Amino acid sequence: MFRLALRRLSSFNQPLGAREIPRFGGIATMMRLPHAGDATGLDACFLGIPFDVAVTNRAGTRHGPRQIRNESSLLRPFNAATGAAPFESIQVADVGDVAVNTHSIADTFAAIEERVASVTTNGCVPLVLGGDHSITHAILRGMAKTHGKVALVHVDAHCDTADYKYITHGTPFRRAVEEDLLVCDKVWQIGLRGGGYTADDFAWGSERGFHVVQATDCWHKSLAPLMERVRDNVGDTPVYISFDIDALDPGFAPGTGTPEIGGLTPIQALEIIRGCRGLNIVGGDLVEVSPPYDASGNTALLGANLLFEMLCVLPKVKYTPIRSFSH
């Protein structure tokens, strides 16, 4: 009862706790937050885009948002590692899913663009549960209506700048450059690896100013120094974070459509996102979780945790000092 009284007195939405209803109960919203019909009055929101029509290999990411929400019931509202207290700082809710058209990429992209624009024009930061990576192209279109061109922290096994004449999950950032949606010299691609079709697969972005950090440059090291470089480069430019779960090694995140060996660790993923603290983050996504290949649920759980970490580094979030228990 005492906890419920505190919840009613708080001016910010709170995730349901296990003391109020078991973690396996209730409606499956992100972190069991309240569901909101739109972004009015919100500082940040979780938005699902259950779409995988643009994949080129294994399908299934259309089920990603729902599974991420299910696994997010394990999360708690205070970040005990960093001291971030987002639900004591900002108003957050789950605004549901974009009504995608599984028979039309064009219709879906128009719906995504409109929905994202409606969120950002309300002054709200969208954190998107994907969905395949093609959706980021449409998200950036919607972001541009409020923020114009943005910087980008793109964490992925693949560069996603393929020269296809049609839209796939391998084309979003080539299309974004062609449509002048990115500040190219403030784009960071981290974790790229795997085989390619030509020796120039990763060169297209570099030739346009992208900072390309291949996975081999990340092996056996902390990525905190790298994130210092990212912060120095990006400065106060509005920045979007796009995190493909296949950036992580498939030993940690097997539930994805295009796994590549030799990837990042969850610890490095945390270093990347926590290293974005202090940047002017205007949105983010976590894409390519494919539940049919995620037998344990660990991939979706990783995705849920990384989305929470993105929430924790948003500009308005307050931090509480962490007590040290070391001897």
Q: Any overview of this molecule?
A:
The protein is 28% helix and 16% strand. It has 327 residues and is α/β, with parallel strands linked by helices. It has one domain (2-312): Arginase, Chain A (3-Layer(aba) Sandwich). Strand 5, helix 6 (203-207) and strand 6 (211-214) form a beta-alpha-beta unit. The longest helix has 16 residues, at 105-120. The radius of gyration is 19 Å and the shape is globular. The two termini are 37 Å apart.
Order of helices and strands: HEHEHEHEHEHEHEHEH
Task: Please report the number of helical segments.
Answer: 9
- What oligomeric assembly is this protein in? single chain
DSSP strand tally: 8
Helix content, binned percent: 25-40%
User: Which structural class do you get from the secondary structure elements?
Assistant: alpha/beta
The CATH topology = Arginase, Chain A
Q: Main β-sheet, in a few words?
A: 8 strands, parallel
Which word captures the global form?
Answer: globular
In a nutshell, what does this entry contain?
With 327 residues, the protein is α/β, with parallel strands linked by helices. It contains nine helices and eight strands.
Secondary structure elements and their pairing?
Layout: H1 2-9, E1 44-49, H2 64-71, E2 92-97, H3 105-120, E3 125-130, H4 135-147, E4 150-155, H5 172-178, E5 182-192, H6 203-207, E6 211-214, H7 224-234, E7 239-244, H8 266-274, E8 281-287, H9 298-312
Parallel strand pairs: 1-2, 1-3, 3-8, 4-5, 4-7, 5-6, 7-8
List keywords for this structure.
eight-stranded parallel beta sheet; Arginase, Chain A; 16% strand; 327 residues; alpha/beta
